[in-house]
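Tokens for chain A. Residues wanted.
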């Protein structure tokens, strides 16, 4: 049998972040934080922005539901932010077409609630009308009007090189959630505290009441989760989240208007060209989308069982470790096998992630996905002392060859992880995570055997 050779991980060329910690725990115990998550539709979701930052930055647990990995979703259009960067703006900037899509989504939700078309039109027109740029006073009260001129730079400093009718004016616009730097970051990345589904108001709404309109426009959003604020949590944090739920989100919409006609010189045949003037208009966003952190079942159980830094709720009750072991095993029949493999590799210093896109159970990263490409694709199997058992994935030579070729083409190695269960272990012992104490692990790296290469190596010996 050929001996396995360890190949160093392939480092990514451009890395723009620093490595903080392998786990979201503090050795001294000073900054230890117990995060909260919810089980919704068989998924474990974290919505508190502080918890999201804690779990992802320290150990790269989970992924953003709207991002490839790191939860950095923002409603702002990056090209528009770059275009208007001289305006010194602290509000999201979106195009008019994108804003109209949000209006249409809000319109469809209102129609589903039984409002007639005339009422829906009036409600949305009233809610999305142009506004004065808001800002915060020292006491946090929202104010509008000409008094905000003192807050910002002169208009002369915000003019763009392109033709535009106005460049925001004499203001630095601050939305209510941008009172400090943390709130500003949460606004740009999507703050779960503003979950619109958590707003449960009466359906009998008056058209002129903007607060109830916001509730109606955001109710029944199918793919957003309910607020994770529980009675058992700290009262102060609950009140802060509830106070933010009804706060509107202000966005700057880039709109175009036709300006006066300008005549070209005679060489251009005196044609009249319409000059498109662009301006930013402050409006309320009638349909808000937030990004949450989604944890795999293995990641969630590891944070609860191994690190003790996560509390998972179902409804309004936190689940115990034994209950989670039972629930996760029902949701995912092979959970016990994959979790034992996950726990093993996490303990060895690797960062395991879901390997579904490569046809395996896990992908192993050194330090984390931002720094290195995955080194191994892992298939986990639970066997007895004789390496026999009801294999979840019986591999034929054809399927094994195809899986190995897929792995090698992605510059990874295929690893078979056998979790050896003692013959005398009963199902009752397997019903608790304490069974892992008696489990042994055997790793096997699958590599392609090349006859010519093997012969040349034997000749050298």
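Reply:
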């Amino acid at each position: 049998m050929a001996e396995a050779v360890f190949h160093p991980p392939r480092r990514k060329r451009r890395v723009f972040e620093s490595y903080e910690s392998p786990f979201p725990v503090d050795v001294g115990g000073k900054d230890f934080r117990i995060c909260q998550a919810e089980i919704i539709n068989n998924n474990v979701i974290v919505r508190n922005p502080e918890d999201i930052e804690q779990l992802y930055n320290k150990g790269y647990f989970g992924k953003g539901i709207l991002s490839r990995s790191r939860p950095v979703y923002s409603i702002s259009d990056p090209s528009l932010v770059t275009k208007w960067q001289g305006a010194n703006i602290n509000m999201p900037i979106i195009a008019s077409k994108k804003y109209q899509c949000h209006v249409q989504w809000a319109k469809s939700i209102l129609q589903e609630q039984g409002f007639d078309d005339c009422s829906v039109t009036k409600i949305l027109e009233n809610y999305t009308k142009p506004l004065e740029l808001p800002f915060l006073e020292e006491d946090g009260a929202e104010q509008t009007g000409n008094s905000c001129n003192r807050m910002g730079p002169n208009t002369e400093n915000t003019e763009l090189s392109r033709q535009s009718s106005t460049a925001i004016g004499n203001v630095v616009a601050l939305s209510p959630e941008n009172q400090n730097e943390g709130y500003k970051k949460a606004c740009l990345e999507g703050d779960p505290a503003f979950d619109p589904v958590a707003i449960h108001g009466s359906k009998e709404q008056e058209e002129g009441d903007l607060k109830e309109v916001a509730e109606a426009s955001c109710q029944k959003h199918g793919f957003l989760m309910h607020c994770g604020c529980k009675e058992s949590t700290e009262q102060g944090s609950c009140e802060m989240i509830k106070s933010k739920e009804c706060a509107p989100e202000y966005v700057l919409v880039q709109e175009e208007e036709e300006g006066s006609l300008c005549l070209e010189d005679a060489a251009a045949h005196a044609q009249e060209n319409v000059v498109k003037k662009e301006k930013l208009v402050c409006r309320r966003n009638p349909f808000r989308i937030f990004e949450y952190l989604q944890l795999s079942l293995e990641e969630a159980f590891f944070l609860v069982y191994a690190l003790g830094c996560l509390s998972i709720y179902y409804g309004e009750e936190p689940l115990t470790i034994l209950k989670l072991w039972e629930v996760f095993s029902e949701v995912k029949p092979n959970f016990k096998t994959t979790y034992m493999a996950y726990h093993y590799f996490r303990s060895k210093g690797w960062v395991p992630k879901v390997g579904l896109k490569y046809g395996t159970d896990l992908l192993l990263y050194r330090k984390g996905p931002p720094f290195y490409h995955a080194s191994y694709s892992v298939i986990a199997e639970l066997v007895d002392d004789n390496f026999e058992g009801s294999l979840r994935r019986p591999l034929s030579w054809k399927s094994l060859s195809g899986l190995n070729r897929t792995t090698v083409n992605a510059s990874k190695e295929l690893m078979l992880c056998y979790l050896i269960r003692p013959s005398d272990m009963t199902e009752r012992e397997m019903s608790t995570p304490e069974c892992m104490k008696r489990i042994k692990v055997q790793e096997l790296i699958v590599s392609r055997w090349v006859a010519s290469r093997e012969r040349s190596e034997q000749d050298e010996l």
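DSSP finds 13 helices and 16 strands in the chain. Residues 135-235 have pLDDT under 50 and may be disordered.
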